[in-house]
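FAQ: What does the model actually see?

It sees only this:
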Amino acid sequence: MSASEVELDRSLVQPWVPLASLVLAVAGLAVSVYLTIEHFTSSSTLACPETGALNCLKVTTSEQSAVLGIPVVVLGLVYFVVMLVAALPPLWRSKSPLIRYGRLAFAAIGVIFVFYLVFSELFTLGAICLWCTAVHVLAVALFAVTALGTAYADPSDL
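And it is asked to produce this:
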Protein backbone atom coordinates (compact mmCIF):
# COMPACT_ATOMS: atom_id res chain seq x y z
CA MET A 1 0.00 0.00 0.00
CA SER A 2 1.48 3.34 -1.06
CA ALA A 3 1.61 6.47 1.09
CA SER A 4 -1.20 8.13 -0.90
CA GLU A 5 -3.43 5.06 -0.37
CA VAL A 6 -2.74 5.19 3.37
CA GLU A 7 -3.89 8.84 3.48
CA LEU A 8 -7.14 7.92 1.76
CA ASP A 9 -7.67 4.87 3.99
CA ARG A 10 -8.92 6.85 6.99
CA SER A 11 -11.73 5.55 9.11
CA LEU A 12 -14.84 7.65 9.61
CA VAL A 13 -13.57 8.66 13.05
CA GLN A 14 -10.35 8.39 15.04
CA PRO A 15 -10.49 5.40 17.44
CA TRP A 16 -9.92 7.60 20.54
CA VAL A 17 -12.86 9.93 19.78
CA PRO A 18 -15.78 7.65 20.78
CA LEU A 19 -14.01 6.55 23.97
CA ALA A 20 -13.02 10.08 24.97
CA SER A 21 -16.48 11.48 24.29
CA LEU A 22 -18.11 8.59 26.15
CA VAL A 23 -15.87 9.08 29.21
CA LEU A 24 -16.54 12.84 29.25
CA ALA A 25 -20.30 12.31 28.88
CA VAL A 26 -20.36 9.72 31.69
CA ALA A 27 -18.33 12.01 33.97
CA GLY A 28 -20.61 14.94 33.14
CA LEU A 29 -23.67 12.82 33.78
CA ALA A 30 -22.28 11.69 37.14
CA VAL A 31 -21.66 15.26 38.33
CA SER A 32 -25.04 16.35 36.95
CA VAL A 33 -26.80 13.56 38.82
CA TYR A 34 -25.07 14.66 42.03
CA LEU A 35 -26.04 18.30 41.48
CA THR A 36 -29.63 17.32 40.64
CA ILE A 37 -29.92 15.28 43.84
CA GLU A 38 -28.50 18.22 45.78
CA HIS A 39 -30.90 20.63 44.10
CA PHE A 40 -33.97 18.63 45.05
CA THR A 41 -32.79 17.83 48.59
CA SER A 42 -31.14 19.95 51.24
CA SER A 43 -28.19 21.24 49.16
CA SER A 44 -26.07 20.95 52.28
CA THR A 45 -23.59 18.27 51.20
CA LEU A 46 -22.07 20.11 48.23
CA ALA A 47 -18.61 19.89 49.84
CA CYS A 48 -17.82 23.41 48.71
CA PRO A 49 -17.04 26.50 50.80
CA GLU A 50 -19.97 28.81 51.50
CA THR A 51 -17.99 32.00 51.90
CA GLY A 52 -16.29 34.39 49.53
CA ALA A 53 -15.96 33.76 45.83
CA LEU A 54 -16.32 29.99 46.18
CA ASN A 55 -19.90 29.42 47.21
CA CYS A 56 -21.74 26.48 45.67
CA LEU A 57 -24.83 26.99 47.80
CA LYS A 58 -25.21 30.60 46.65
CA VAL A 59 -24.91 29.57 43.01
CA THR A 60 -27.11 26.48 43.14
CA THR A 61 -29.92 28.21 45.03
CA SER A 62 -29.82 31.55 43.19
CA GLU A 63 -32.43 32.95 40.84
CA GLN A 64 -30.05 32.02 37.99
CA SER A 65 -30.25 28.33 38.95
CA ALA A 66 -33.39 28.03 36.80
CA VAL A 67 -34.14 29.03 33.22
CA LEU A 68 -37.79 29.52 32.32
CA GLY A 69 -38.66 27.72 35.53
CA ILE A 70 -36.54 24.67 34.66
CA PRO A 71 -33.68 24.00 37.08
CA VAL A 72 -30.31 24.35 35.34
CA VAL A 73 -29.25 21.04 36.90
CA VAL A 74 -32.08 19.28 35.05
CA LEU A 75 -30.98 20.90 31.79
CA GLY A 76 -27.44 19.65 32.48
CA LEU A 77 -28.75 16.18 33.19
CA VAL A 78 -30.68 16.12 29.90
CA TYR A 79 -27.66 17.50 28.04
CA PHE A 80 -25.31 14.79 29.28
CA VAL A 81 -27.87 12.00 28.71
CA VAL A 82 -28.27 13.11 25.08
CA MET A 83 -24.50 13.46 24.66
CA LEU A 84 -23.96 10.04 26.24
CA VAL A 85 -26.23 8.45 23.66
CA ALA A 86 -24.63 10.51 20.86
CA ALA A 87 -21.17 9.38 22.04
CA LEU A 88 -21.90 5.69 21.62
CA PRO A 89 -19.41 4.15 19.16
CA PRO A 90 -22.05 2.96 16.63
CA LEU A 91 -23.37 6.52 16.38
CA TRP A 92 -19.85 7.85 15.84
CA ARG A 93 -19.56 5.47 12.89
CA SER A 94 -22.88 6.63 11.45
CA LYS A 95 -22.73 8.35 8.09
CA SER A 96 -26.00 10.18 8.78
CA PRO A 97 -25.47 13.95 8.62
CA LEU A 98 -28.37 14.36 11.06
CA ILE A 99 -26.50 12.34 13.70
CA ARG A 100 -23.05 13.74 12.97
CA TYR A 101 -24.01 17.41 12.80
CA GLY A 102 -26.81 17.09 15.33
CA ARG A 103 -24.27 15.84 17.88
CA LEU A 104 -21.97 18.74 17.03
CA ALA A 105 -24.79 21.29 17.24
CA PHE A 106 -25.97 19.94 20.59
CA ALA A 107 -22.40 20.05 21.94
CA ALA A 108 -22.10 23.66 20.72
CA ILE A 109 -25.37 24.61 22.42
CA GLY A 110 -23.93 23.17 25.63
CA VAL A 111 -20.86 25.40 25.36
CA ILE A 112 -22.95 28.49 24.64
CA PHE A 113 -25.00 27.70 27.75
CA VAL A 114 -21.76 27.27 29.73
CA PHE A 115 -20.71 30.79 28.68
CA TYR A 116 -24.04 32.14 29.94
CA LEU A 117 -23.69 30.28 33.26
CA VAL A 118 -20.09 31.37 33.82
CA PHE A 119 -21.07 34.97 33.05
CA SER A 120 -23.90 34.69 35.58
CA GLU A 121 -21.58 33.24 38.22
CA LEU A 122 -18.89 35.86 37.75
CA PHE A 123 -20.86 39.03 37.07
CA THR A 124 -24.34 38.52 38.49
CA LEU A 125 -23.72 36.36 41.55
CA GLY A 126 -20.08 37.10 42.31
CA ALA A 127 -19.63 33.47 43.30
CA ILE A 128 -18.30 30.32 41.69
CA CYS A 129 -19.53 26.78 42.27
CA LEU A 130 -16.74 24.20 42.00
CA TRP A 131 -19.19 21.43 41.04
CA CYS A 132 -20.69 23.65 38.34
CA THR A 133 -17.20 24.45 37.10
CA ALA A 134 -16.53 20.72 36.77
CA VAL A 135 -19.64 20.40 34.60
CA HIS A 136 -18.56 23.42 32.54
CA VAL A 137 -15.09 21.98 31.93
CA LEU A 138 -16.56 18.61 30.94
CA ALA A 139 -19.05 20.24 28.54
CA VAL A 140 -16.30 22.31 26.87
CA ALA A 141 -14.02 19.26 26.62
CA LEU A 142 -16.90 17.21 25.17
CA PHE A 143 -17.48 19.92 22.57
CA ALA A 144 -13.76 19.95 21.68
CA VAL A 145 -13.66 16.17 21.22
CA THR A 146 -16.91 16.25 19.24
CA ALA A 147 -15.66 19.06 17.00
CA LEU A 148 -12.35 17.30 16.37
CA GLY A 149 -14.05 13.98 15.73
CA THR A 150 -16.50 15.56 13.30
CA ALA A 151 -13.84 17.63 11.53
CA TYR A 152 -11.60 14.60 11.04
CA ALA A 153 -14.24 12.58 9.20
CA ASP A 154 -13.23 11.72 5.67
CA PRO A 155 -15.80 13.39 3.38
CA SER A 156 -15.66 10.40 1.00
CA ASP A 157 -16.92 8.20 3.86
CA LEU A 158 -19.96 10.38 4.47
